Amino acid sequence: MGLTAYTALMLYFLYFGFDRINSIHDGANRYNLIPDGISLSLPTGNVTWFWFYNFANFAAFLPYGMFVPRVASVRFLRFLGLFLVTISILEALQWATGLGSFDIDDILTNVLGGVVGYMAQRWVPRTKDTLKGIGMIFAAAALFSLGTIIAVQGINHWIAKATSVEAGREVGIDSLPVKEGLISWDPSPAGFEVGGHQMEPQVNLLSRENPGSTSVTYALDGKYLTFSGNMGVPDAIPQGESTVIIALDGEVSERIVSSENASYFEMDVYGAKELTITIRNENDKPNTNVVLWDMILTEIKNR
Asked: What's the rounded mean pLDDT across residues 238-262?
């Protein structure tokens, strides 16, 4: 019963949660069939939406490995095969309905969560049906998860070091051609205050003439290493608040609510084919509350 309720909750988040219905899209270009790796790491500093998304992709599937073998006696290879097929079907349905994407990296992360959960329940062979045994399964799952994340982080670090690339020149995102959507940048950036602090844009500044809800997509074509910038609501705009969503190849990487204080971000865009910026006012003002400035892409050297 508990596993059924948990599955119903999971299906809700997979197909309806995170405003998926209002963000429905054409799934034709939202798939990834080439593994890029498993993005798991220990949290450092501020916990970003990207970190939480990847951790949830792993942790949310632990219970299936922990408790499915208790409901139906199944050996590891059979469990692994059935779990892999089921997750692949769910990803395909997300893509087909436009409510998500088919991403091989998500599948690998989901399956890894199920495998760690399975190993945790195998570690408690005799008392797993007792309250004490269930507690031991949870403890084992937490311990194995920590070890798995540390191992994956170490492997990712080693791979990154072995395949490291050098940073090239920096370019303002406003200099890139727009692939889809419409957004305007201020041709003569002027200073302004955010949270009582003076801001002086050096590279670019989003025009306040943009509508309260807008979206634009730029083609990156795998040529860039990092994307950074600043955002905030100027003090001249009272009670202004906006949500800024940055997506790479259709997958949300950052979700930031800008209000009283300026926010700086820097993110890895290595290998990304396109970058989408979506701005949405949290009130009914016709023009955007938030402004973005010094939005910079760092090229990969010698590309």
From this structure: 82
Please give the Cα distance from 272 to 210 (Å, whole number).
26
Please report, as a single letter, which amino acid is at residue 157: H
Provide the pairing of β-strand 178-181 with 213-219: antiparallel
Maximum mean pLDDT: which of 50-64, 121-135, 159-173? 50-64
* Tokens representing residue 13 in the block: 């988040």
SS3 (DSSP) at 280 = strand
CA 108 – CA 57 distance, rounded (Å): 9
Residue type, 38: I
Determine if residue 299 is left, alpha or beta; phi over 0 gives left, psi from -120 to 50 gives alpha, anything else beta: beta
Buried b (16+ CB within 10 A) or exposed e, 68-78: bbeeeeeeeee
Start-to-end CA distance of the chain, whole Å, equals: 55
Q: What is the pTM of this model?
A: 0.56
Looking at the predicted structure, is the pLDDT value of residue 63 above 90? Answer: yes
Report which residue type is found at 249: D
Summarised one tens digit per residue, pLDDT across range 113-128 is 999 999 999 888 766 6
Write out the DSSP string of 150-208.
HHHHHHHHHHHHHT---EEEEEEGGGSPEEEE---B-SS---EEETTEEE--SS-BB-T
Residue type, 102: F
Interaxial angle between packed helices 2-15 and 62-71, expressed in degrees from 0 to 180 and rounded to the nearest 10: 140
What backbone phi and psi angles, to 5 degrees, belong to 81?
Answer: -65, -45
Average pLDDT, the chain: 87
